[in-house]
Structure formats: C-alpha cells, structure tokens
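G., the chain you wanted modeled:
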Amino acid sequence: MSIAARDFRELRLEGMSRSFGSLSAVKDVTLNVKRGEFIALLGPSGCGKSTALNCLAGLLPLSGGSIWLDQTRIDRLKPEERGFGMVFQNYALFPHMSVRDNIGFGLVMQNRPKAELDRKVDEALAIVRLIDQSEKFPGELSGGQQQRVAIARAIVIEPPLVLMDEPLSNLDAKLRLEMRAEIRRIHDLIGSATIYVTHDQEEALSLADRIVVMRSGEVRQVGTPEDLYVRPAHADVAEFMGYRNQIRTRMTASGGSHTVSIGGVSVPATPVEPTLDGPAIAAVRPDDLKIAPDGAVSVTVETVQYHGHDFYCSGRASDGTELYFRSPVKIVTGEAVRLAAAANRVLIYSGV
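Predicted structure as tokens:
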C-alpha cells in the first residue's frame, strides 16, 4: 500500500483560543497529539469542540495561542497549506462529479501527475471498498457510501492529520455501527492522527485512544476511554459519561470510609475530588445500580423501557429521589424493588 500519512511526530496545541466578540468559544486549549493517535473531542452542543476543529483546519483564525506540527507553527498557514484531511458532517461532496473525481479533487488541486492521481484514487477506492461504485455520482449512493467517499477524499492526499466533524450523525443506527468500525480500520491502516468531534459518548468510547471532554469552551478532562468511563474527574464529566444519577446529598467520612445519603439511607461511596463532610454530589451509572434483595435503597418503579437484552427503568425513593437503573428481568410500574451499588461505583464529588 502506498497511501500513508505524511510523517510527523507530534501535533501541539498551545493555549489555543477563539473568541467571537465577548464570547469565548474555545479557551486556552493545550493538547499534544502523537502520530497514529485517535483523539475524540467530546461534549454537548455549544461546548466548543467544532470551533476547536475549525481552528485546527484553518477555517477560523485563532484569537490566542498557537498550533505546531513538530517544529513548524501552522496556525498562520492557510487551510490548504496545512495539508490536513477533513470529513464534514454533511459529506460536502460535489454532486456533479463522479465518485472517482470527488476523491481525486485534492490531488488535482495539488497538480499531481495523472498517473499518480489515478493510482492514488484506485488505492483510496480499495481502502473504502467502493471500487465498483467509482463512476457513480453522489446522488446515486447511500448515506454510508457517501461518507466513505468523503473519507477517501480526505485520506488520498496522505495527510498527517484527519479531522472529522460528527461524520456519522446523519446515518441510521445500523450504519453508524458499521462506519465506526470502518473509520477505525482506515485510521489504523494509513497511520495518520485523527481528531474526531462527537457528542456521542458511546462513539467516543469505542473509537478513541484518548478522549478530550469539553464544556463551555474548556477542556475538563483528557484520558483513555477506560479512565473517563470508570473515574470521571468532575461531576459534569461524569454526567456526560453516562452517570445519569447525580444526587445532591451529604457525605460523611469515618475511619477512612465514606458514605452518602441516597433515598434517605446511608450508602458506601468513593470520593473522586477532595471533599469534606457536608454537601456533595453522588454519581452512579444506571448500569451499576442493580436490583438486589438486600439492597439498601428502596424505590417504587415509575417507568420501564425494553432495550432488547434488559430493561431501562426509573424509580422513586420515599424521600422523592429519582433513580435510573437497569433490570435483567421484566418488572412493572408500581412495583417496589431494592437497589444496590458497589462502593467504588458510587462516586463522590464536591457539592459546593
């Protein structure tokens, strides 16, 4: 295979910032990305992740900080001078061009010789498994096939960095799963670094080597999928990583152990942030809150949703606390059940 990422060691963001008037959309983002890494920028709408990606691409100028590719400062370069591949949410294919011509467009702009262009396009078509679709037009393709064309166009120029802005959001659930696997396969094959914007934590967990969680333009935590899944550093990160149960409560420490009040009863828990006795936030995933005959917390079931392999439920404790949990067996609304969670799965954050 001749298509491979241009050689580099490291992309560095040093205090990258972008403001729109008085609004700071991206605030002092500092991050190092190694060649071959897959980085997901994760966060809710409006958190600054797409703005950060557009700054990297050169589509938006920085208000502060700098971007470096090894020893070369690139934030002052035009988008085409950076040599990055970009995959947009809406594919951005040329409707009047064939698949082959869409893929080869970047090479044409680089004035590559025709023989090299044809060879690179053929290889890119093979990588995304679209050889038999090469003469079709975008309107004749499915959404998943159009996304493959967009990916092929991004990688055929052999970029050191591929930027992807929510590329799967327009696909149905089945295609999203298929394309996730394809995106990771292609990333591993060509050896580029990938920076991937998403608001879907499951997508980020399944694809990324490291996840960057953003909120209000700031980086809240950077870590491996395992780090962020098991031990979110802050309550807002925990909420975004699936800790739907966030209960304002009180923590009590005694003899090296910690407890919080949930549903009017004391439950063993694990502090994440330094916190003293008093106001706290207890965070628990629905997956970690399980029905158990000897569970400490009693709730009355209010909703039950069938999710195929289990049931996603909500219940309310006697003090009014609403809790979300999963059940492997069918239960019904109005039923009383007892819930339990391991102490290391009930995380305590400062409630101040």
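Residues 173-190 form the longest helix (18 residues).

Shout if anything looks off.
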